[in-house]
Amino acid sequence: SYPFDPILHYRPGFGHSLPVQVLLTAVVVALTAALLIHLLFTAQYHWPLSPLNFVLQLCAASTLLVSGVATIRVIMSTLAGESRQWPYMLNYVAVDIPPLSPDTQNDAWTTAGLAAWLLMDAAVGMLIQMTHIQFLTLLYPSALERRLIYALLGPLAVASAAMHAVRIHTDTRMSRAAFVVQNVCNATLSLLFTASLLLWGLLLHRARAWRTDGGTASFGLGASALALASTTITFLYIPADAQYEWLHGLIWALVLWQSFLG
Fold first, then answer.
1. Do residues 247 and 233 make contact, with C-beta atoms less than 8 angstroms apart?
2. Does residue 69 contact residue 29 with C-beta atoms inside 8 Å?
3. What does the alpha-carbon distance between residue 215 and residue 230 come to, in Å, rounded to a whole number?
4. In which domain, by residue range, is 32 found?
5. What is the spatial distance between Cα 182 and Cα 177, in angstroms, rounded to a whole number?
6. CATH number assigned to the domain comprising residue 130
7. What is the pLDDT of residues 26-57, one digit of tens each?
8. 211 Cβ partners below 8 Å, 6+ apart?
9. Strand partners, 17
10. Residue 24 falls within a domain, yes or no?
11. Taking the CA of residue 138 as centre, how many other CA atoms within 13 Å lie in the half-sphere pointing to its CB?
12. Would 161 be classed as within a structural domain?
């Protein structure tokens, strides 16, 4: 007999468990829904300041909300199917969405379905990055600064979104490389966003950024805290062997709230 259960050695980490996946996906949906409500209630103030930024935030939040709701629907439908088969109980392991690994692919997902899901993920990421890039052009409005922002950050956002298309290949090494490239691009963008925000608020326009009237300082503090949090998470996520699909949604929700508070 063994002093411990040897099978437990092969059990996935708790971050890959079904309860964590359901909980974090629900948190992302709740954060995004709350952001949409705030956007709608503040539209009369937000729209005159920057119509393009308002439209981008609204589109990005709506797309992320649709993605979160679709994820929950797929999880629940998968669990309903599993509960009708032996051993008539729910699985410990999180539902793989979409099932790109050769070990987890199933007949319920067609190639068109996988492509559509990855396209939705790419659209979510691209819209959120575009929203953040456009927000930086409001902080740095000169023509030269805008060109530099678009030239430096635009290609990184496009590369990050394009990696979703690469992941449709079943080659494990190619999929892993796509994850790494995507994580590096997202971390670089997050670092540049945070550095630009802190530079604007702490050095260039300190008096304007930390005014106490109208809650300006509170919004700035919230945006800075979320920027630091999202940057830390993205950098910790780069070398991680375990890739959590739900973490991208959480990061996107933090980034959207950062743009809104900023």
1. yes
2. yes
3. 23
4. 6-261
5. 8
6. 1.20.1070
7. 999 999 999 999 999 988 888 888 899 999 99
8. 217
9. 93
10. yes
11. 17
12. yes
- R_g (Cα) of the chain, nearest Å: 20
Phi-psi region of 50 (alpha: psi -120 to 50; beta: other; left: phi over 0): beta
Cα 111 from Cα 75, distance rounded (Å): 19
Kindly state whether residue 1 falls inside one of the protein's structural domains.
no
Longest dimension (CA), the chain: 73
Q: Is residue 94 part of a domain?
A: yes
- DSSP-based three-state secondary structure for 17: strand
Residues 119-175 pLDDT 10s: 999 999 999 999 989 988 888 888 888 898 899 899 999 998 888 878 776 667 777
Instruction: Kindly report the pTM of this predicted structure.
Output: 0.88
Neighbour-count burial of 138, counting CB atoms closer than 10 A to its CB (0-12 exposed, 13-18 middle, 19+ buried): middle
* Closest by Cα among 61, 50, 219, 208 to 135: 50
Q: By mean pLDDT, which of 48-52, 86-90, 112-116, 209-213 is the weakest?
A: 209-213
147-186 b/e (C-beta count within 10 Å ≥ 16 → b): eebeeebeebbebbbbbbebbbeeeeeebeebbeebbbbb
DSSP string, 67-84: HHHHHHHHHHHHHHHHTT
The total domain count for the chain is 1
Helix (H) and strand (E) counts in the chain: 9, 0
The CA distance from 61 to 46, in Å, is: 15
What whole-number distance in Å separates Cα of residue 193 and Cα of residue 130?
A: 12
Cβ(231)–Cβ(190) under 8 Å? yes
Contact 242, 16 (CB under 8 A): yes
